[in-house]
Amino acid sequence: MSESIKLSITGMSCNGRVEDADNILNTVEGVDFAVISQDDNQAVIIGNASALSLITALEAAGFEVKEI
Question: How far is CA 58 from the centre of its chain?
Answer without folding.
Answer: 7
